[in-house]
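User: quick one, fold this
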Amino acid sequence: MEGPGPEYETLAHLGPCLIDNLNAVSFANDLCNRYGLDTISTGAAIAFGMEAFEKGLITGKRQAGLISHGATSRP
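Assistant:
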């Protein structure tokens, strides 16, 4: 991707969700900018979804393919 790259807050909130893949974080940052989403809030929402899935609060049926992190490790 071309451009200045993600800001510190974007790296801090989206980075852990996207497993240190700078290209993925940059792409997510670009999508947030295009759709007018705050990257801090988006990162927090993704982290909540991932945590809820890991705790079993969101099942494979309910997630509708939106959260794939850790999906292969759950029965």
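User: anything notable?
Assistant: DSSP finds four helices and no strands in the chain.
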